[in-house]
Amino acid sequence: MGTLTERWLVLGHPMPKKRRTGRAAKEQSAREQFGGEPADFSHLLGGGRRTEFKLGSEWVVQSISASRAQKEYVCPGCPHPVPPATAHVVVWRNDHFFGDEHAVTERRHWHEHCWRLAR
Question: Which of 2, 66, 79, 107 is the most buried (most CB within 10 A)?
């Protein structure tokens, strides 16, 4: 009688689609339901970069998770170290006189608590 495909075609039925499972199925379902690609939330995984006004300047504040903290730093808000595997924030001036590249080279690692208390 032939292959399964030939039998389906003889009977006049289209071949059934391969059933998707897992992540691919969810993405396909989202595209069909909402029309288009699923939203990109990758910026949320980066740790929440924000801008704050403190100490008389505008600062960029980047949260660092404990799993990403691999080196020891000294917190400028207190004389204590920020040990590896400790969640903290990295801070640099948003309005540096010599530009963004120079500002990033002067970034500092603060304890979250010390940065919140900084005025």
Answer: 107
Which has the closest alpha carbon to 75: 58, 60, 88, 64? Answer: 88
Q: Is 14 in the same domain as 57? A: no
Q: What is the pLDDT of residue 101?
A: 72
Are 110 and 76 spatial neighbours (Cβ–Cβ below 8 Å)? yes
Whole-number pLDDT of residue 9: 59
CB atoms within 10 A of CB 29: 12
Tokens of 91: 């801070």
At 20 the pLDDT is 59
User: In the chain, how many domains are there?
Assistant: 2
Residue 57 above 70 pLDDT?
yes
Q: Which domain holds residue 60?
A: 42-117
12 & 59 share domain:
no
- pLDDT in the model for residue 119: 79
Pull the structure tokens for residue 84.
């590896």
Q: At residue 87, what is the residue type?
A: A
